[in-house]
Amino acid sequence: MESGFLLCFATFALLLPFFSFLAEAQGIGVNYGMKGDNLPSPSEVISLYKSRNITKLRLFFPDKEALDVLRGSGIGVILGAYNEDLPQLAENASFATSWVNESVIPYATSVEFRYIDIGNELIPGDSASYVLPAMRNVDAALRNAGVAIPVTTAVSTEVLDTSYPPSQGAFSDDVSQVLTDIVGFLSAKEAPLLVNVYPFFAYAGDPGEVRLDYALFTSGGVVVQDGSLGYSNLFDAMVDSVNAALERAGGGAVEVVVSETGWPSAGGDAGATVDNASTYINNLVKHVKSKAGTPRFPGKEPEVYLFAMFNEDLKPAGTERNFGMYYPDMSEVYHVSF
Ligand SMILES: *[C@@H]1O[C@H](CO)[C@@H](O)[C@H](O)[C@H]1NC(C)=O
Ligand SMILES: *[C@@H]1O[C@H](CO)[C@@H](O)[C@H](O)[C@H]1NC(C)=O
Ligand SMILES: *[C@@H]1O[C@H](CO)[C@@H](O)[C@H](O)[C@H]1NC(C)=O
Ligand SMILES: *[C@@H]1O[C@H](CO)[C@@H](O)[C@H](O)[C@H]1NC(C)=O
Question: pTM of the prediction?
Fold first, then answer.
């Protein structure tokens, strides 16, 4: 009996890290955007995450109050840096060290950081060349402090020149060199690439050409046949076109984490209604929970962060202000079953 107990214990001890990794990786994340002058306090917001069983969150910058509330919460966190800090993070190693000293180290033992996101949608753009040097400086500062958190950056699907059919996905010429170097870094560090994936913008930009049911996961069958792979929703097609581009850039093993995806409930553009937003988000959540993966990687569902928790009134007028699942008073714009 004693040896049985020991064996049992040993098995449990071996499995424990595995299970805690699974627990950490499971579930849908939600972006916690703060561009509103009427939003609830971080402690009310984090309580709302907990009450809805939302297990992951993305912060766009190191908000000390939110990070304090996240201590011991078990919520997985993607931590971003201000885009404005990129030049200094890239050119001044001691600025990167003090950023890590102030924004990460004080929380490293109590907040479950998943990734540090250096730069949001800076490629293509004037600041694109700062991204990799800034990632390297932050990574070095973390390593020097003995903290192991993968460092990455977030791009939109604008980095693709070709995205149709998905197997032809390729980075455009103007970003190809920058991204190939970043992909090399991510490969070597086994870090994922964060990608903001918006079927909504594809639909709203060309509603005559892009089928709404394909964008909303309601087609009920294959819409795009790509060689042997059949696509019934645009989300999978967009993720796989990035997967194909990564492979072309020598990063076939680099994982895609969907750092943003969402659908506005108002604001004037084609498709921006509460019902369409609810359909998109709830079907997406079901898709992620089914762990179906994409046609290119069946069974390997990407980690996904919905955009966003709240409608944000300081964003540009129109659909941009209406991506929230909640109004600032914490009532639901539409219900999401997590
Ligand atoms: C959260 O998860 C717990 C445990 O799985 C469950 O009992 C509870 O009903 C869930 N709450 C919500 C709001 O989904
Ligand atoms: C580099 O960053 C450090 C730490 O923030 C700062 O004290 C120093 O002035 C910066 N150097 C330059 C040249 O900006
Ligand atoms: C960062 O923190 C370490 C450890 O406390 C300290 O030695 C170092 O001077 C700090 N560096 C900066 C640039 O703040
Ligand atoms: C979804 O968007 C389309 C296109 O704008 C619109 O015609 C339709 O009424 C919307 N559907 C719902 C259920 O809101």
Answer: 0.93
Give 216 Cα–ligand 1 centroid separation in angstroms: 26
Distance 43 CA to ligand 1 centre (A): 20
Amino acid at 233: N
- The whole-angstrom separation of Cα 331 and Cα 136 is 41
Q: CATH number of 2-321: 3.30.450.40, 3.40.50.1000, 3.20.20.80, 3.40.630.30?
A: 3.20.20.80
77-92 pLDDT per residue, tens:
999 999 999 999 999 9
Q: What whole-number percentage of the chain has pLDDT above 70?
A: 93
Report, as residue numbers or ranges, the catalytic residues.
121, 260
Pocket-testing residue among 95, 99, 100, ligand 2, by greatest number of atoms within 8 A of Cβ: 95
Nearest CA among 128, 136, 137 for reference residue 99: 137
**CA 269 → CA 204, 279, 296, distances in Å?**
6, 17, 31
